[in-house]
Amino acid sequence: MIEVRSDYWDLIQQDKQIVFVHTPFCATCQLAERMLTIMEESYREQNYYRLNASFFPVFMEKNKITSVPALLLVKNGVVEDKLYAFESVVKLHEVLNNWK
């Protein structure tokens, strides 16, 4: 996953991107990230971004991101869809296929 920093922000503003929102000390986020790593292996053509919620409070408020972990479908800089419940790799696979 590509860590979102201010210099990567422009990349997320273009096309369709998958953004994983987390905080470093969130145990649930760490588990969700392991599941996403498996998905990353299956969907190599898709870029996955990691966004540390602590560094982007304006983004979090503007897009009404209510908790972490969160998986976002971002199209042209607009959050089109959100997933908060990382139930399983199978669920992630289904969500990502619907987002394609």
From TrEMBL:
Show where the Thioredoxin domain sits. Answer: 7-88
> Which CDD domains does the UniProt record give?
TRX_family (cd02947)
Report any Pfam family annotated for this entry. Thioredoxin
Q: Could you name the domain of life of the organism this protein comes from? A: Bacteria
Name of the protein: Thioredoxin
State the organism named in the record: Gracilibacillus boraciitolerans JCM 21714
